[in-house]
Amino acid sequence: MITKTEITAATLAAAFALLAVPVSAEDMGGPKAGKEKCYGVAMKGQNDCAAGAGTTCAGTSKVDYDGTAWKYVPKGTCETMKTPNGMGSLKPSKS
Amino acid sequence: MRVSPLPLSAGASFKPEHFAAISTAPQPLGFFEVHAENYMGGGGTPHAQLRFLREHYALSVHGVGLNIGSREPLDRAHLARLKELCDRYQPECFSEHLAWSSHAGIFFNDLLPLPYTEQNLISVIDHIDEAQTALRRRLLLENPATYLRFKQSTIPETEFLAAIARATGCGLLLDVNNVFVSARNHATSASAYLEAFPLDLVGEIHLAGHFETTDGQGSPLCIDAHGSPVVEDVFALFDSVIARAGPLPTLIEWDNDLPDWPVLRAEALAAQVRLDRARLVRAAQAAA
Amino acid sequence: MQTWESDFARAVRSPDWAVPHGVTSYNSDTPQQRFAIYRNNVMVGLVSALEARFPATRKIAGEDFFKGAAKLFAATQPPGSPLMMFYGDEFPAFLADFEPAREVPYLADVARLEAARTRACHAADAKTLTPAALSGGLPDALAGMGFILHPSVEIVASDYPIVTIWAMNSGEIDLAPITDWRGEDALVSRPGFDVAVRRLPPGAKTFLQGLGTGTALGSAAQAAFAENPGFDLVANLAALFASLAIEITNEPFKVPLP
């Protein structure tokens, strides 16, 4: 069992020496997004000078400004992503 | 003396979605234009792409957030960001809008209209003086697309723009689609507007698509959506402008419902054909 | 002071709106529908910015729920800066306090991860270190060395498996049952052009946060071991040199040779 008192200069030097053998950053575990490529994938620019949305009703509903008149239910990805509360349920388990 | 050093040819809005297509082969376009605010991060892909454009093409930086039309003081921090961007990329052209977009610390993310009054004229002139001094460059100011007007306006828009340009030395960006859209929305004549427009101060032209709907009274209403091809009526107005003024740097803007790059490029090349034709006609007239 | 501008600004943002003072059109003294164009442009523009920045959060919550929450956020916390790419830094905190989102307790943490991704995307460029930067350094000096992490590096800690949930809802991995339901700490970084999201192994958060706040390598490693005996020093050093650190502080080379 390693304890913190064992972190000495020698431990660090030994660990560092192991880096001579290439260790992939993938070893940090978990999924890694995208592959390195020239220029990458840019996020869409957010500022523009067009006005396409003007004919929607987006700004005219008072309900949109009123948290107490909330009418939506979060969908969750419960159909396919199993949570501790089981498939299809996102509510905390009451049992 | 040219108002802007952009080439007298057609260019296109740059969108990151088109970068792969644009960067694989040389494009037969004179310049690209970007929105300044999208390049105000520290680094990463946006700046790498802008560096590529800068290396291969003439560049126009088009601001949408300087709030020139507001009565509030300019945002010094934003002006400093614009200066940093212009210093970094040395674009051939920097332009902004005759509009406002921030008030009392809130940014509206839209180009809002202002009344054309003596007071607002003085305020806009002060703002442009301040911006040109800070940026150490000439700015081009764009005519807006509007959906309504103000009772208190006393100065026609063309006179308002001309007075600003005379007082500040700034140039003008003539958005021909905005002229069409506003004229339709106010039941006025786009041709008469262009007759009154000081074309000798124009450093760049914008062309874009709009869509037409109706207002609460059932009258035609045009929305400046930048999500479709330029309509023939707007191209015809463009022809009349370049017949009078000669070829000018001409940008096709496309912001919504972005098509594949070849479609936008073809639209820009259609504008190029019209520029070439105007050049030939003028040469023939000069020779006659 | 009431001006045409403050009047217009208030009307553009309020649902119980009247056409602001002075606004007119050739065919109406109160052109409500025309004025609504500006109101709708403002609201849709802000909601679109949030939709673009939080796609996985949106997928989890559903389009209608997300749009409703985004509208409420935009109405109560509009942007203060014209840099729309950074709009929504406070959206995760809004979701965390948002009663209707309680049913999806991990939603706010996924949003925090997505907000960090955008910041990483636009962070300043910097060249990362390689182990070669240390070749010739004295082993004794390693423990005293500090590092400056890449400007894009952020750690998003969660009581929920947010890296897995994010990956499943952003197309990185297929949607599947999550059988091992436990907290995950996300490491967000962008050493080159692409933003990487990784699940941090045990102890790594303490190690990196220590380095990020100026703690020397030896002390940061000790703290990580103290917290979790399973801390893998080699893997963490590898990651540090592969993509996370850009500069060494307390240069070992300045230590005088005996």
What does this structure look like?
In chain A, 11% of the residues lie in helices and 0% in strands. Chain A has 95 residues and is mostly loops. The longest helix of chain A is centred in the N-terminal third of the chain and has 10 residues, at 9-18. With 288 residues, chain B is of the alpha/beta class. Chain B has a single domain, classed as TIM Barrel (Alpha-Beta Barrel). Chain B has helices at 19-24, 45-56, 76-89, 118-135, 157-168, 176-185, 190-196, 232-245, 261-287; strands spanning 10-13, 31-35, 58-62, 93-97, 100-103, 106-112, 139-142, 149-150, 171-175, 202-208, 211-214, 220-223, 250-253. In chain B, the strands form 3 sheets. An 8-stranded parallel barrel of chain B has the order 1-2-3-4-7-9-10-13, surrounded by 6 helices. Chain B has a two-stranded antiparallel ribbon with strand order 5-6. Chain B has a two-stranded antiparallel ribbon with strand order 11-12. In chain B, helix 4 (118-135) packs across helix 5 and helix 8 (232-245) packs parallel to helix 9 (261-287). The mean pLDDT of chain B is 97. Chain C has 258 residues and is mainly alpha-helical. Chain C folds into 2 domains: 1-104, no CATH class; 126-258, no CATH class. Chain C has helices at 4-13, 32-53, 55-61, 63-76, 91-96, 107-122, 139-142, 162-168, 204-212, 217-227, 233-244; strands at 23-24, 146-149, 154-157, 185-189, 196-199, 245-249. In chain C, the strands form 2 sheets. A 3-stranded antiparallel β-sheet of chain C has the order 3-4-5, with helices on both faces. The chains are: A little secondary structure (95), B alpha/beta (288), C mainly alpha (258). Chains in contact: A-B, A-C, B-C. Chains B and C meet through helix 2, strand 5, strand 6 and strand 8 of B and helix 1, strand 1, helix 2 and helix 6 of C. Strand 8 of chain B pairs antiparallel with strand 1 of chain C, so a sheet runs across the interface.
Features:
heterotrimer, A: 95 residues, little secondary structure, 1 helix, B: 288 residues, alpha/beta, TIM Barrel, 8-stranded parallel β-barrel, two-stranded antiparallel sheet
